[in-house]
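Session log. Operator J.P. requested a structure for one protein chain; no other inputs attached. Running the standard single-chain path with token output.
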Amino acid sequence: MEQLLSKLNDAGLITDQYINLNSCQMVEIGTFEAMFGAALNAEDKYEALIAADDNGNGTTKGYKRFFDAWLEAGIVEKLVV
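Structure written below.
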């Protein structure tokens, strides 16, 4: 989690105790860690975050678009096999 927070901070996406998802939305760091912290232990953090975004009932938490932006910005990485 610390590595992700560091990269988000370097990208200017951390304000106080919040991750700025876009210009209108933010999430408290503790809340984000509770929802997605376990995914950050995976080797492929991007795919693990996408999997953790899935509620398992055909719905998602709605974070995929932010994870996609982070992937494009190099904040999270996707393994290439």
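Operator note: Residues 2-73 form one domain.
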